[in-house]
Specification:
The complex is a heterodimer of chains A (about 300) and B (about 240). Chain A is α/β, with parallel strands linked by helices and about 300 residues long. Chain A contains eleven helices and 14 strands. Chain A has helices at about 45-50, 75, 95-105, 110-120, 135-145, 165-180, 195-200, 215-225, 235-245, 265-280, 295-300, and strands at about 5-15, 20-30, 35, 60-65, 65-70, 80-85, 155, 185-190, 200-205, 210-215, 225-235, 250-255, 255-260, 285-290. In chain A, strands 6-7-8-3-9-10 form a six-stranded mixed β-sheet, with helices on both faces. The longest helix of chain A has 18 residues, at about 165-180. The two termini of chain A are about 35 Å apart. Helices cover about 75% and strands about 0% of the residues of chain B. Chain B starts with a helix and ends with a helix. The chains are: A alpha/beta (about 300), B mainly alpha (about 240).
């Protein structure tokens, strides 16, 4: 059985009549890069704040590394590093001084500062005041600070928020390498589906404070509806063949047909359709069976396409 | 706890808190030099020491408390570092207690520097006037006693301002209340019940009736300790969303 680094069990948090988190259950396996997805306002940051002990849920339980957060806060948080919302650093201090403040609070060794700076490639900029840093540098320095305690679990709240494309690419590469370089499990929230799809091994989907999915990316892809893409001409003939072959609800765009009859889509039926199209004199330029991407699945699960990024 | 204290002190580096802390002694020195040089000030050391401490107690102490507590709190509120600091595996009460101690330490240093500036302004001011003299001798014991008592009597104001500054993200609330308190203190200086008004407690150290001064020190000191303690407990337990 895979060890679980972070567990949320039935976590419910209400602000008056508003339910921010509604019985949230999450299990983050050790060694994973866990993408915590949800539209803006879904409750991702609130869940992270509960996981860090900054907010106290009305009911439910949070455990980190097997330690109950409520009963044993210090032991639970000792194995966690976090960057919540923005990389909040003291602008009047240099990067190194910022790390030194945290190092002293957690009682880490001075050598851990150099190690953390090395990991995020910020040694050269560490002597400069943080007030003069770009957002990308602040994100890296925030990450270095989170890595100071050599955490088993690294919690990153929207780590690429506000970065330019180059900064996003660099941060993504950095995060992807961290489990190998540090041994840490990554729990990363994001509303950018493409970002999570590229680096995560596991995902959790949250909407309106409820978990819609929690599992591996493979588990999620198994839930993804397959589609058959067909491009054939003449289109009218092809449409007749497709209808005759028993495919319902085909979406037609010019010569292109998207068949989304989940129960009927098998490789055998795709081959049979290809043969039927050829027999009817249609020129088939494309015929492929594909699974929906994460964005499509996410929209299907949340059933509110306008919310998703 | 020592580590938490050092960490809090480190945060002050290159911050505006130090500029605000340096302002009162500089102002007291400049004003003292001008008054002494004009020849219209006290002509005797005891009166000079008391006059200097009165300016401190009435106006500069509460204003310094407003500025220093607000800026120390803004060190965390500004860049929104609370989420980071309070999610560390450190007892929260230590974080807040360290902030209290740094605030009090800074206020103690400013009090001492103001007393020193009041003394230093006299020999400098005398250089600018003709035939000016200050009768008697400077009594460092009296100065330390006055400023020390004012510091203790001012603990309640410091605790109130500190709590407000830490609680509210915006500095508008603590600054407004501080300015309001200082204004009421000036307007109600001679009121009988003024003794119970936190902003007037440091001023009452100078009261001609000795018992009034002692009561102000006791109420301000005890009240301050109680408010600081309750504030640390409350802030350690509350949610930081």
């Amino acid at each position: 059985m895979t060890e679980t680094v972070l567990t949320l069990q039935g976590v419910t948090l209400r602000y008056g009549k508003l339910t921010a988190l509604d019985g949230v259950d999450l299990a983050i396996p050790s060694g994973a890069i866990y993408g915590f997805l949800g539209p803006n306002g879904a409750g991702k940051t609130t869940a992270i704040r509960c996981a860090m002990g900054l907010l106290t849920p009305q009911s439910g339980r949070v455990a980190i590394g097997g330690h109950d957060l409520k009963r044993n806060r210090r032991k639970a948080l000792a194995s966690v590093g976090a960057v919540i919302e923005t990389p909040a650093l003291f602008p009047n201090l240099t990067g190194r001084e910022n790390l030194d403040v945290t190092r002293r609070l957690i009682g880490a060794r001075p050598a851990q500062i150099d190690r953390a700076l090395e990991l995020v490639d910020m040694r050269d900029a560490a002597k400069r005041r943080v007030g003069h840093y770009s957002l990308g540098m602040k994100q890296r320095m925030g990450l270095a600070r989170a890595l100071l305690a050599e955490p088993r679990l690294l919690i990153l709240d929207e780590p690429t928020n506000g970065l330019d494309p180059a900064g996003i690419r660099d941060m993504r590469a950095l995060i992807r390498d961290l489990p190998t370089r540090t041994g840490a499990t990554i729990f990363m929230s994001s509303h950018l589906l493409s970002e999570v799809e590229q680096i995560a091994t596991h995902v959790g989907l949250l909407q309106h404070g409820r978990v819609l999915f929690d599992g591996s990316l493979d588990d999620l892809s198994r839930q993804q509806t397959p589609r058959l893409i067909v491009e054939a001409s003449p289109a009218d003939n092809a449409a007749a063949v497709i209808a005759g072959a028993g495919f319902a609800n085909a979406i037609r765009e010019g010569d292109r047909f998207t068949l989304a009859d989940a129960d009927a889509l098998t490789t055998e039926r795709a081959a049979a359709l290809n043969a039927a199209l050829h027999a009817a004199g249609c020129a088939v330029s494309e015929l492929r069976l594909e699974r929906a991407d994460l964005e499509t699945t996410f929209m299907t699960l949340t059933a509110q396409p306008e919310d998703a990024a | 706890m020592i580590n938490a204290l050092i960490a809090e002190a480190l945060k002050l580096r290159r911050s505006l808190v130090l500029l605000v802390a340096a302002t009162p002694p500089v102002m007291v020195f400049a004003l003292g030099v001008l008054i002494v040089a004009s020849g219209n000030g006290p002509e005797e050391w005891t009166m000079q020491t008391m006059a200097g401490s009165a300016i401190w107690a009435f106006f500069l102490l509460p204003m310094s408390v407003i500025g220093i507590t607000a800026l120390i709190a803004q060190l965390e509120h500004g860049p929104n570092t609370w989420s980071h600091t309070l999610a560390l595996p450190v007892p929260r009460w230590q974080v807040f207690a360290a902030k209290v101690l740094v605030t009090l330490g800074l206020m103690a240093v400013v009090s001492f520097a103001v007393a020193l500036a009041g003394w230093a302004s006299v020999p400098v001011g005398l250089q600018f006037g003709d035939d000016l003299e200050m009768a008697g001798q400077f009594d460092p014991g009296l100065a330390l006693q006055l400023y020390g008592k004012m510091f203790i009597a001012g603990l309640l104001v410091m605790a109130i301002q500190w709590t407000l500054a830490m609680r509210f993200r915006s500095f508008a609330a603590p600054v407004s209340i501080g300015i309001g308190g200082t204004f009421v203190a000036v307007a109600a200086t001679s009121a009988e019940q003024g003794l119970y008004f936190p902003w007037l407690m440091p001023v009452n150290v100078l009261a001609s009736e000795g018992s009034r001064g002692e009561l102000a020190v006791m109420m301000g000191g005890l009240g301050g300790l109680i408010v600081f303690t309750l504030a640390i407990i409350w802030m350690s337990r509350r949610d930081w969303g």
